[in-house]
Specification:
The complex is a heterodimer of chains A (222) and B (186). By secondary structure, chain A is α+β, with helices and mostly antiparallel strands. Chain A is 59% helix and 13% strand. In chain A, strands 2-3-1-4 form a four-stranded antiparallel β-sheet. In chain A, a hairpin with a 3-residue loop joins strand 2 and strand 3. In chain A, helix 1 crosses helix 2, helix 1 packs parallel to helix 3 and helix 2 crosses helix 3. About 9% of the residues of chain A have low confidence. Chain B is built from ten helices and no strands. In chain B, helix 4 packs parallel to helix 9 and helix 9 packs across helix 10. The termini of chain B are far apart. The relative contact order of chain B is 0.10. About 4% of the residues of chain B have low confidence. The chains are: A alpha+beta (222), B mainly alpha (186). Chains A and B meet through helix 1, helix 3, helix 4 and helix 5 of A and helix 1, helix 2, helix 3, helix 7 and helix 8 of B.
């Protein structure tokens, strides 16, 4: 083995403890896996690391747990602290996460439903305005092609544990919009394409959407 | 209902939410206790220290910026507290030889078992490592901390984390060899 390979091996060998603990980046883990597959000596040394890992966990797990005294003392000290005035956290991400985290799935479903209803009502109002404008003779060049009946739609039920952030991310990533719902069973009518897709394309699109973990149910609809 | 993330709990604690503190404590106190106990080697001191660690969390939650995982932040505070306690006790100079002597003197039934069980010998040798080596082994293997996180907790460069881990493992192999187990490494 030449110097470069020796140095590369040594570099990878140093990462074995983290590889065994599962704390390497995907790229590093792949490099280590590839090296383990082609280097039997490295693989043998990796077994030593795994042995150390197992026994370190065993040792720590036999250390027991603290008595209730630690918790009692902590909260006695906390109660003796000056009263704190609630101030809004500066961490916006945590605040948003906390807001949605505080909602039960049922509340979340109602909220999402209310939001969807607001979108539908808004669409109806805008549609009404557009219709009135059309009826008075004013028409832009773009309106004629945007017939409301076009597009491909699906009925979707989200998993109960899906958060509003998950749903928003799913809709944005896949360029979807909620066209109606929630209906009975928490089903939403979602536009999956702006044009009427051929059956094969629609099925393919549905299959791709179904692979997302927040989808509980999906079926084509008109 | 999904469990609130550690970051969310810290946000609530910053606003004085006592219940959030109880949840965070329940979630992490055993691991923090074990980390501290391995350093100070005294259960009563370790218990005192974990209440100090979590009191610091209560007081400083509004300063937590979320750049590291909450568990990493907890271990950093715990390490600082444990080192301060060791300094107070005048044990910071406890070297490998003294530590090993203490372990050897203990009437540990595991020693007898160790002769038959390789795993038990390995565990026995883990207790004989220096404080520095024990710490890094625990952080990597038990507390599942990445190179970057260990560097943050211990306050050393990432390259040093890797070399320190190497020397800790090398020392472990030497201790095993003294017990009649030759691993053929390093």
């Amino acid at each position: 083995m030449n110097t470069t390979n020796e140095s590369e091996r040594s570099e990878l060998e140093n990462l074995l403890p983290w590889h065994a603990a599962g704390t390497l980046s995907v790229r590093e883990a792949q490099s280590v896996e590839a090296a383990l597959a082609r280097d039997p000596e490295l693989k043998r040394r990796y077994e030593l690391v795994r042995e150390e890992l197992a026994q370190t966990i065993h040792l720590n797990e036999t250390l027991g747990a603290p008595s209730a005294r630690a918790m009692t003392e902590l909260f006695a000290k906390i109660d003796a602290e000056p009263k704190r005035h609630a101030a809004p956290s500066l961490n916006l991400g945590a605040r948003i996460a906390e807001f949605f985290g505080a909602l039960s799935p049922r509340t979340l479903a109602w909220s999402a439903g209310a939001a969807a209803l607001a979108i539908v009502l808004q669409a109806a109002v805008i549609g009404g305005i557009a219709f009135r404008e059309q009826s008075t003779g004013y028409q832009t060049a773009s309106v004629s092609g945007a017939a409301s009946g076009d597009g491909s739609y699906a009925l979707i039920r989200f998993q109960p544990q899906a958060t509003a952030a998950d749903i928003t991310r799913f809709l944005e990533t896949n360029k979807l919009s909620i066209a109606g719902g929630p209906a009975a069973g928490g089903l939403y009518r979602v536009r999956i394409a702006e044009t009427k897709l051929p059956k094969a394309d629609r099925d393919q699109r549905m299959q791709a959407l179904q692979s997302d973990k927040i989808i509980g149910f999906i079926a084509p609809t008109e | 209902m999904q469990a609130a993330s550690d970051d969310v709990l810290i946000g609530r604690i910053a606003n004085g939410d006592r219940l959030a503190m109880q949840v965070l404590f329940a979630r992490h106190h055993v691991r923090v206790y074990r980390f501290v106990l391995r350093m100070v080697r005294n259960e009563a001191t370790a218990e005192d220290l974990i209440s100090e660690v979590f009191l610091d969390v209560w007081r400083q939650a509004d300063k937590f910026e979320g750049r590291a995982a909450v568990s990493t932040w907890l271990l950093s505070i715990a390490r600082f507290k444990a080192l301060s306690a060791l300094r107070r006790r005048g044990e910071e100079e406890l070297d490998d030889e003294k530590a090993a002597a203490i372990e050897d003197q203990a009437d540990d039934p595991e020693v007898t078992l160790a002769k038959k069980d390789k795993g038990a010998v390995l565990r026995q040798c883990l207790t004989k490592l220096s404080a520095e080596h024990r710490e890094i082994i625990d952080l990597v293997y038990y507390h599942e901390k990445s190179v970057e996180e260990v560097a943050g907790i211990v306050g050393i460069p990432e390259a040093t984390v890797k070399t320190r881990m190497f020397y800790a493992r090398k020392k472990l192999s030497e201790l095993l060899k003294e017990q009649g187990i030759d691993r053929g490494w390093p």
